[in-house]
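Try this one yourself first.
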């Protein structure tokens, strides 16, 4: 069956071994259902766009062909409906997975999962062409916390493939990413692993942290970026929402101790237009501030404690 608007599907070649995966490269782009007679019949409903992905398993196709699923996209919502057929060995070592689906992304990355029995591989590819990698680790958790005078980083992996090490990097608004530590990886493992690192000399102000994972062969991938607010001793403003605001604003706070906090709002001329106060408790909490009718515009909110500590945020009020 043909469709007027067909997605430019990407032919992907990658290698899957029992103990090692390697990078793949995108070799060409095709439209439609691929070569006649080589595709199965995906049964997604609707007026769907179609295409195919080719996966190389080395010298020969596996006896049990792994199933393929689309699990994430970086541009837009996850296509629905969407499906792959079971896969067909079209030449020695090459399996073709035909797909059909609506609202396929035209840019960004698509993350795929290949499942063969108890083994799962995750890979990511560029919709617009270029190159990608099978993700060498499954990072199931990554958090940073300000504890006393240090920033504690904790992360967990559910799978590692040829993982040499993690490099911990830090940045702030006026400095590039800098290496602040290295933790050895576990090589190849399919069990859950827990990692910890302490930044004993965190930067003042707002800092950002990320993990750079290094393969044994030198390839690398990055984690998501997390933020630490070290402007006021013992207090972090972890989130402020909504911004722009109308009549309320919520401050998510993390405090090391009970403290009295003032929130002052200033207009662009420096005039204080609103003041509110709260006694916060130790731990995580949300401070809901009801805003008076101070007019639309940009305001500066300054939090201060009785020890002279301050931090400020810009807020747009509609």
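Now uncover the answer:
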């Amino acid at each position: 069956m043909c469709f007027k608007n067909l997605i430019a599907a990407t032919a992907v070649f990658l290698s899957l071994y029992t103990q090692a995966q390697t990078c793949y490269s995108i070799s060409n782009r095709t439209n439609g259902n691929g070569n006649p007679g080589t595709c199965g019949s995906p049964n997604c409903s609707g007026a769907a766009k179609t295409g195919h992905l080719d996966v190389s398993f080395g010298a020969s196709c596996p006896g049990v062909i792994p199933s393929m699923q689309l699990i994430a996209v970086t541009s837009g919502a996850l296509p629905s409906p969407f499906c792959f057929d079971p896969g067909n060995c079209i030449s020695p070592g090459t399996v073709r997975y035909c797909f059909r689906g609506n609202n396929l992304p035209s840019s960004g990355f698509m993350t795929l999962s290949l499942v063969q029995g108890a083994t799962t591989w995750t890979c990511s590819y560029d919709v617009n062409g270029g190159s990608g990698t099978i993700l060498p680790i499954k990072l199931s958790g990554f958090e940073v916390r300000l504890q006393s005078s240090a920033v504690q980083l904790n992360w967990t992996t559910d799978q590692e493939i040829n993982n040499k090490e993690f490099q911990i990097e830090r940045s702030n608004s006026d400095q590039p990413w800098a290496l602040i530590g290295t933790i050895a990886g576990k090589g190849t493992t399919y069990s859950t692993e827990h990692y910890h690192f302490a930044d004993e000399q965190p930067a003042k102000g707002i800092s950002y942290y990320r993990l750079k994972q290094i393969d044994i062969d030198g390839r690398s991938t990055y984690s998501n970026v997390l933020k630490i607010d070290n402007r006021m001793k013992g207090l972090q403003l972890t989130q402020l929402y909504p911004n722009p605001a109308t009549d309320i604003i919520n401050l998510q706070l993390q405090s090391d101790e009970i403290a009295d906090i003032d929130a002052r709002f200033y207009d662009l001329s420096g005039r204080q237009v609103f003041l509110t106060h709260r006694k916060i408790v130790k731990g995580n909490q949300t401070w809901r501030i009801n805003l008076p009718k101070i007019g639309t515009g940009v305001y500066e909110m300054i939090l201060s404690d009785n020890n002279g500590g301050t931090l400020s945020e810009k807020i747009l009020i509609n």
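Discussion: Residues 1-37 have pLDDT under 50 and may be disordered. The chain has three domains: 8-134, 137-230, 235-317.
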